[in-house]
Write a structure and sequence with these properties.
Elements lengths: L10 H4 L3 E2 H8 L3 H9 L7 E2 L5 E3 L2 H14 L4 H13 L4 H34 L14
Antiparallel strand pairs: 1-3, 2-3
Length: about 140
């Protein structure tokens, strides 16, 4: 009679998924952030342990990477949720993602124009400033 394989003694091997602490350590994100993403519906545990721990599969890493990249571009959570839902459905979301990125690019360019205008105004203001404070008197008067 063939013998059965030994029962794993390492809890990680016996566990049917990655615990949140393992995901946090591997992804470089705090546990609190991963819990927040779960609470916001951005990621979901694949399962729960008997003790109630959230268990994730390895796909969580690609989702966290995408979330991190889009959050760095200030993509709102609501848009991010939609992008992830479409991505999970297997439907190409290139147009939606491209529109989101274009919108962010337009916003950055607008902000750069505003900052450049503020820079010009400040430079002009400094040009007219006296050492003692206040504006220099107008020339010729």
């Amino acid at each position: 009679m063939a013998s059965l394989p030994p029962i794993p003694t390492n809890n990680r091997m016996a566990s049917p998924g990655l615990r949140i602490g393992e995901v946090a350590q591997s992804s470089g994100l705090p546990v609190k952030t991963i819990r927040f993403y779960c609470d916001q519906g951005l990621i979901s545990p694949a399962n729960r342990s008997q003790g109630g721990y959230r268990l994730f599969d390895h796909t969580v890493y690609s989702e966290l990477s995408l979330i991190r990249s889009l959050r760095a571009m200030d993509v709102p959570l609501s848009e991010l949720r939609q992008i992830l839902e479409v991505r999970r459905s297997g439907v190409c979301n290139c147009a939606a993602l491209k529109a989101t990125l274009q919108s962010k690019l337009d916003g950055i360019e607008q902000r750069m124009r505003e900052l450049y205008q503020m820079r010009l105004e400040l430079a002009e203001f400094l040009e007219e400033w006296q050492d003692c404070g206040g504006a220099k008197p107008a020339a010729g008067g």
